[in-house]
Amino acid sequence: MVHLESPHHHDPNRAACGPRFLTPEFNTFLFAMVGTDRRGGQLSVVSALARLDLDAWTEAAALARLPRAAAAQHLSALLRKWYSSKMISS
Predict the structure, then answer these.
(1) Is the CB of residue 62 less than 8 Å from the CB of residue 70?
(2) pTM of this prediction?
(3) Which residues 6+ apart lie within 8 Å of 32 measured at CB?
């Protein structure tokens, strides 16, 4: 089972030397549009992950290591979590 809480939750004390500085290989995925925000603006994967306080490049690297079905399930759970939080936030 894939957990909603990521082990890669943003830690402000962690050194800024994660995967984002190594390669742009996840950029196409991270900047793909996945929906709209409350104001009608386009929402990308990177935006949704940032709004969940997750490091997008670290999450992308973790998803890339999973089997395709598990990665899709985990990403869907994260997007559902973001969508649920935006519905209850003011």
Answers:
(1) no
(2) 0.66
(3) 44, 45
9 part of a folded domain: no
Domain that holds residue 35: 19-88
From first to last of its 90 residues, what are the pLDDT tens digits of the chain? 333 344 444 444 444 445 445 568 898 999 999 888 778 888 899 998 998 999 999 999 999 999 999 999 999 999 888 888 765 443
Q: Based on the structure, what is the number of domains in the chain? A: 1
DSSP 38-55: TTS-EEEHHHHHHHTTB-
The answer to whether the CB of 80 falls within 8 A of the CB of 87 is no
> Taking a C-beta distance cutoff of 8 angstroms, is the pair 82, 51 a contact?
yes
SS3 percent helix, strand, coil of the chain, rounded to 5, is 50, 10, 40
